[in-house]
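Attaching the record inline, Q. Sequence:
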Amino acid sequence: MSTKMTIIATKGTLDWAYPPFILGSTAAALDYEVTIFFTFYGLALLKKDITAKVSPLGNPAMPMKMPMGPKWFRNIEWNIPNFVQSIVPGFENVATGLMKKTISNVGVASIGELRELCIDAGVRMMACQMTVELFGYDHNAFIDGIEYVGAASYLDIASEAQINLFV
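Structure, as predicted:
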C-alpha cells in the first residue's frame, strides 16, 4: 500500500504557490499518491495563466534583498514596515519582480514548471466547485485535467490519507 497525502491550497500569491507544488511534486517523486484540493484564492494556481504576485503586506518577516546594484548593496536585507508597503504605489509589483529575479538567480523552478512536474507525476488536482461558482469562474479559465469536486469528495480522499496538509 502506498502512502497517501492530501494538500489543501487556499492562497494564490507567489510565495504561497510554492508549498503545495513543491510538497506535491516531491511526494509524488517518492511514490506517494498525492491529491491537491484548491479552494478560495488557491484556485488562481489552476488558471491557465498564473499571474501570482508577492503580497508583502501583512508579512513583516519578508526580507527584501536587492538583486541589483553594487555587490555590497545586494546583500543588504530590507525589512520594510507594513505601513510603508501600504502607501508606496506599485510596491507589490516591485516585491514580485524582486522575488522572481531572486528565484531565477538561485535556479528555483517557476510555479508553472512545478505545476507541470505535479501533472507529469500524476498528482491529482481538484478544484473546489463551490468556490468556482462563488467567484463566478468559467471552467475554460483553468488548465485541463483538473477535477471539479465538493468538499465531501475531498474529505473522502483525505480520510484515507496518512498525511493531510493545509497550506
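Residues 152 and 158 are 10 Å apart (CA to CA). The chain has seven helices and seven strands.

More tomorrow.
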